[in-house]
Design brief:
Layout lengths: L2 H21 L4 H7 L2 H19 L2 H31 L6 H24 L9 H10 L6 H25 L7 H21 L4 E4 L14 H4 L14 E6 H35 L3 H11 L6 H18 L7 E6 L2
Parallel strand pairs: 1-2
Antiparallel strand pairs: 2-3
Helix pairs in contact: 1-2, 1-3, 1-6, 3-4, 3-7, 3-8, 4-5, 5-10, 7-8, 8-10, 10-11, 10-12
Length: about 325
């Protein structure tokens, strides 16, 4: 079995098992959400992104879009479910807010269920997975070395694109979604690809740089199971990342994620208040901040803190030096 195809097949099989179980559940969308189908979709989307670049094949762009549609749908469910639970635990939050968020979560689950049926992932004519496999088997897969060389170029180009965004926002973030969240998305994908590639990406020790990066090398990052690379297995060629730079990447993702969540909490509460109280956005935002015991300039403060986190990271060139190079597994 070609190495590229086998990487897809690994996660397709896992997704297939979940879809099969979901067919027998009272709600397929509920089952897939509760059993973390989103992780497998992230991996498949990641592989599609990589091989779309390596091969320049429209098939992988279509696959990326298929997986992303499902992953996004699960993301919307998680968004409303998470904030519904969080606000329910807050005694200052009106009960109408929690009710609204729960209603939105149910709506998003229904939407996800409809996508699963419409796109033939489940149901009597659930041919989507088989169709994907047939298409993948027809790909003119290349050597493992070719794949890894393409992966290295893909990383460099992805890093260059992220650095462009960093330059565009060098004077400070002004938007949560289009800048802070987008920056985190790009960085997060760079950390997802190693797991998607199932051992073909490993870490290279670079202790000589540790003293420059102490703020990023904290125990919760170094010891995180998410920062342990998959076993090398039978991969003959490896793409190596500088270990400390990878830890710094993970730290950045974590810190921007915390700030992004602070901002999204304001947005979610404001949205709920605007709808349930039938008021305009400024009024809803003002009340949301009061209920969260935050000052009027809370969002600007979040953006400033995100800028303060990003500036030394990008100015230090830590992302640019993430990739060490290619190695042959002897």
């Amino acid at each position: 079995m070609e190495k590229g195809f086998s990487k897809f097949e690994y996660y397709l099989t896992r997704l297939e098992q979940l879809l099969s179980q979901a067919e027998n559940a009272s709600s397929a969308s509920e089952f897939l959400y509760a059993n973390d189908a989103r992780t497998n979709l992230f991996m498949l989307e990641g592989l599609s992104r990589i091989y779309a670049y390596v091969f320049g094949n429209k098939l992988f762009i279509k696959l990326r879009d298929h997986f992303k549609l499902l992953e996004d749908a699960l993301g919307y469910i998680d968004y409303y479910d998470s904030f519904a639970k969080e606000f329910k635990a807050n005694p200052h939050t009106p009960i109408t807010v929690t009710a609204y968020l729960r209603t939105k979560m149910v709506e998003k689950k229904d939407t996800f269920q409809q996508i699963l049926l419409k796109k033939k992932w489940i149901g009597k004519k659930n041919f989507r997975l088989n169709k994907i496999r047939r298409k993948l088997k027809k790909v003119s897969w290349q050597s493992e070395k070719f794949d890894i060389q393409g992966l290295e170029s893909f990383y460099h180009d992805s890093i260059d694109d992220t650095n462009v965004l960093a330059l565009e926002t060098a004077k400070g973030f002004t938007e949560l979604e289009d800048e802070v969240h987008e920056m985190r998305r790009r960085l997060r994908w760079l950390s997802i690809y190693p797991r998607a590639m199932q051992g073909a990406i490993q870490l290279h020790d670079n202790p000589e740089q540790a003293h420059q990066m102490e703020q990023y090398l904290v125990p919760e990052i170094i010891n995180s199971p998410f920062n342990k690379m998959p076993e090398i297995g039978d991969n003959l060629y490896l793409l190596l990342h500088n270990k400390n730079n990878f830890f710094a990447l993970s730290w950045m993702i974590s810190e921007l994620g915390k700030l992004k969540d602070e901002g999204l909490k304001i947005y979610a509460l404001s949205e709920a208040l605007k709808v349930t109280e039938e008021k305009d956005t400024p009024w809803a935002t003002k009340l949301a901040l009061e209920l969260l015991l935050l000052p009027p300039d809370a969002m600007n403060n979040i953006l400033q803190r995100a800028s303060a986190v990003a500036a030394p990271y990008f100015n230090g060139g830590y992302l640019s030096n993430l990739v060490y190079g290619i190695s042959k597994n002897s």
